[in-house]
Amino acid sequence: MNDVESVGREIRTARKAAGLTQKDLADLAGISERTVRAIETGTGNPALAAVAAAAGVLGLRLVAQ
Q: Average pLDDT of the chain?
């Protein structure tokens, strides 16, 4: 499992725990539902700003290593 998939899995888990749909998260983060899907599945190449926006809505922090 790579870091992209791990981040996506954490975002999906937090989204579901918050009772949000992918559309809800997209609306709150100001990104598209398609981008949320790409983040959660680790596919495509979503911008770091989009990942950070989604994580921020959910109260998650991104830490570079």
A: 95
